[in-house]
Amino acid sequence: MKWKRKANRLPPNKARKIIHVDMDAFFASVEQRDNPELRGKPIAVGGSKMRGVVAAASYEARVFGVRSAMPSVTAKRLCPHLIFVKHNFERYKEVSHQIREIFLSYTDLVEPLSLDEAFLDVTEPKRGPASATLIAKAIRQEIYETTQLTASAGVSFNKFLAKVASDINKPNGMKVITREEAPAFLASLPVKDFHGVGKKTAERMGRMGFRSGADLMALSELEMASRFGKMGRHLYKIVNGLDDRPVNPNRIRKSVGAERTYSEDVSTRAIMRGKLDWLAEKIFSYLKERDNYGRTITLKMKSPDFIIHTRSKSFSGEVRSLSALKEIAYQLLDENIEDVPVVRLLGLNVSNLERENPDGVQLLIPFDGEEE
């Protein structure tokens, strides 16, 4: 029988010690580490001069405004001397495992968010000092000694504050927010930086006169719920420092997907079906290996003008064969090809999984090139 590590659920009056570790420009930093000729230069992982999407950008590229998920042509326009590098996803996973082992040497309560970031609960560490601040420093040092890569960290008594703090002194920095400092910090925080508040919601809240945490602190929980719906109750807790979410080492991943940006636009149904075959085979291999199947299939299509279209089909039972997965993908394609006759990207996603899937969601990062 396989036992799961339990999330640390403490009494509300006992403060947790939470660390959020975030690697600095992870994919790009691995490439620069492994290729000395790229060090100190602006690089983009994924894409090419004219096609694709940037998967990650080095800090030298970020100075010019280059960001992940940006179309390559836009990135090249912002930074004419940008160097595009093909991704090496297996290498990134290998380094991520090295980092994860360091985390686990301090605590079993590690909640990975992606390959390059995780929450750690060090309220009762397995080794090291009792201070979360000193443990964060030690972890960052061990990461550098093991991988020659830098990491930033945030330390606080809840997950939200730790995550926000890790971004403050990037790269290669650390920020601690104590319980005493939290009220003033939260009051000064722009509403867009609160968990769950997207760009459009932040704009709407701004028009209502809510631009910072201080503006929100004036509202009761009932008023928050009345003004902002379901998100309001969550926001009330976050803005008042009442985030009691435990670090969950068994974090649920509810979908598995793959997508690819192509070097040339695809404009025929037969070729699109061939591309979907390849994506379906990658996804199904992953699901079959874990004997974990899903009930909802989603097709993603991106047109040459970067408009994204998604269409889904859900079923009462799990899709348990590769042929069925391909056929559903074909149906979704056939039903929507008139709306999107030409694509630059196709993606396929399986969700509503039969059981928890603690591994990564995205099997492939988008980059320009042909299937291998």
TrEMBL record:
Main location: cytoplasm
Keyword Ligase annotated: no
Gene Ontology MF term list: damaged DNA binding; DNA-directed DNA polymerase activity; magnesium ion binding
Domain UmuC: from-to ranges: 18-198
Reaction equation(s) it catalyzes: DNA(n) + a 2'-deoxyribonucleoside 5'-triphosphate = DNA(n+1) + diphosphate
Domain of life: Bacteria
Family matches, as Pfam families: IMS, IMS_C, IMS_HHH
Cofactor note text: Binds 2 magnesium ions per subunit.
GO cellular component: cytosol
Keywords annotated in UniProt: Cytoplasm, DNA damage, DNA repair, DNA replication, DNA-binding, DNA-directed DNA polymerase, Magnesium, Metal-binding, Mutator protein, Nucleotidyltransferase, Transferase
EC number: 2.7.7.7
InterPro entries: DNA/RNA_pol_sf, DNA_pol_Y-fam_lit_finger_sf, DNA_pol_Y-fam_little_finger, DNA_polymerase-Y, DNApol_IV, PolY_HhH_motif, Rev_trsase/Diguanyl_cyclase, UmuC
Site positions (Substrate discrimination): F27
One GO process term, biological-process aspect: SOS response
Compartments, record wording: Cytoplasm
Entry annotation: catalytic residues: E117
Transferase in keyword set: yes
Residues the entry annotates as binding Mg(2+): D22, D116
Cofactors named for this entry: Mg(2+)
Biological role stated in the UniProt entry: Poorly processive, error-prone DNA polymerase involved in untargeted mutagenesis. Copies undamaged DNA at stalled replication forks, which arise in vivo from mismatched or misaligned primer ends. These misaligned primers can be extended by PolIV. Exhibits no 3'-5' exonuclease (proofreading) activity. May be involved in translesional synthesis, in conjunction with the beta clamp from PolIII.
Subunit structure: Monomer.
Family (UniProt): Belongs to the DNA polymerase type-Y family.
Protein name: DNA polymerase IV
Organism: Neolewinella agarilytica
Lineage summary: Bacteria, Pseudomonadati, Bacteroidota, Saprospiria, Saprospirales
